[in-house]
Amino acid sequence: MRRRTIGGSGLNSDGKLNFNPKIGGDLTEFLPLEEAKKVIDDIDKTFQKYGVEQSSKYDEEKLEKLSTKAAQAEMKFVKIKQKHIGSDRLREVIRRFQEDLENRGVEFNLSTTVKDLKYDRGRITEVETSKGTFPCDYVIWAPGRKGSLNSTSLYDRLGLKYFFNPIDIGVRVEFPSSLMREIVEEYECWDPKVYIRTPTFDDKVRTFCTCPYGYVTIESYEDSLRGVNGYSKFKKWSDNTNFALLVTVGLTQPLNDTTEYGRRIAHVANILGGGKPLLQRYGDLRRGRRSKPESIKENHVKPTLSLDEVTPGDIGLAYPYRLVLDIKEELEKLNNIIPGIAEDSTLLYGPEVKFYSRRIETVEKKGFRTLQTSIQNLFVAGDGSGYSRGIVGAAWTGIIAARGIKSLD
Ligand SMILES: Cc1cc2nc3c(=O)[nH]c(=O)nc-3n(C[C@H](O)[C@H](O)[C@H](O)COP(=O)(O)OP(=O)(O)OC[C@H]3O[C@@H](n4cnc5c(N)ncnc54)[C@H](O)[C@@H]3O)c2cc1C
User: Which protein residues are within 6 Å of ligand 1, measured from CB?
Assistant: First the structure.
């Protein structure tokens, strides 16, 4: 592991857990639905063992009401059992996790980079690292999204086939927490997943990663690009709530590299922001004018991200027309279930881009996908495999890969 600690970004920043086999990847591609639900329950129990509470705020009746309300406004609300660990509790949960694994004989080689996988006669025989070469019977390749992006030459050399997933591009929306209090507290839904098809382009747009009483933060992408993200603390609450509003973009020919497309958009936003993300009042976006430091200072909604880290500007100049219209149409529709969100004072930060990994082609058995690659003893897992996007998703890919290895023994 290249890092000095275990646990990826989500387990070092916010720790929202979505317990649904079709969120953060689709486990039903790998297992029948009932079995998939059982795996998800087991992951929930594992987190409980390390200190996450047993109860989740999942009230079927209340969520059904929210679902109806969304449907009346032509939106789809997905009911999910969720838990939120919070940035201030994560370290302890991860510490217990690591300790338990070490007690059971797992050895972590931290601050160690895998440089190469040696291939001989149809198998991976050795893993070459910055701290020596290790012989191996099986390898689970799980380098995360960033690690996978940097592994193109390895995939090509090993003859692994891959294709591009769609990308999600959008903005982080920030508004007074009171606007969403009904959903968060009365419907007990911490991170509502709401989907629409936009009226003009029929594009898929969704809410993602809601951070009630949360904070907007900077996320560094590759190539020194800077975007935004959000998090909530378990105890220290802000006056605002934020979520990402994301448009799903798939590409075919002649450009199918969705990562490159996302990078270019993030790059333009950063150029306009003088190397920083942009911040704009929704009213200014609607009127086609940039926001200025004075207008942000006078705005009712105060940004939780310091003005030293973002540049008040014009997201409408940075993003293609189609994405801007998609964002406006979703905000206007969301106003039906979150009244006040489409007000002029709502803040938008961009770029927020969810770069997903390429999907590595894996073997299919008995109608279900496995995570075994075309090389018999090489398995893939986690976000770098292109099959998961999130903590729980990454966890179940590990289980599928491990089951795959066990079935070969
Ligand atoms: C800011 C942020 C907040 C997030 N919040 C949430 C959230 O609240 N809920 C949620 O479900 N998801 C969240 N996510 C997503 C979540 O972090 C990922 O889905 C998850 O970490 C994926 O796990 P993974 O094991 O596949 O990859 P990672 O967690 O990225 O782990 C991959 C590991 O492999 C290492 N590595 C890569 N290449 C090499 C190499 N060559 N040699 C050695 N080691 C290597 C990396 O250093 C890393 O330690 C968030 C992501 C970000 C960026």
Answer: 1-3, 8-10, 13-16, 24, 113-114, 142-144, 147, 219, 229, 382-384, 389-391, 394
Model pTM score: 0.85
pLDDT per position as a tens digit, 248-274: 999 999 999 999 999 999 999 999 999
Give the position, in ligand 1's atom list, of the atom nearest the Cα of 11: 17
Residue whose CA is at the smallest distance from ligand 1 atom 34 = 143
Tell how far the Cα of 377 is from the centroid of ligand 1, in angstroms: 23
Cα-to-centroid distance, 312 and ligand 1 (Å): 30
Q: Where are the domains of the chain?
A: 10-58+98-163+360-408, 167-354
Please give the number of the atom of ligand 1 that sits closest to the Cα of 15.
Answer: 8
Tell me, in angstroms, the distance from the centre of ligand 1 to residue 362's CA: 21
- What is the per-residue pLDDT across 13-34, written as a single tens digit (0 to 9) for each? 678 899 999 999 999 999 999 9
Match domain 10-58+98-163+360-408 to its CATH number in 1.20.1440.230, 3.50.50.60, 3.60.15.10, 3.30.70.3450.
Answer: 3.50.50.60
Query: 196 pLDDT band (50/70/90 cuts)?
Result: very high
Sheet containing 347-354: which strands, arranged edge to edge? 76-78, 193-197, 204-211, 240-249, 167-176, 347-354, 278-281, 311-312
Task: Flag whether pLDDT at 3 surpasses 70.
Answer: no
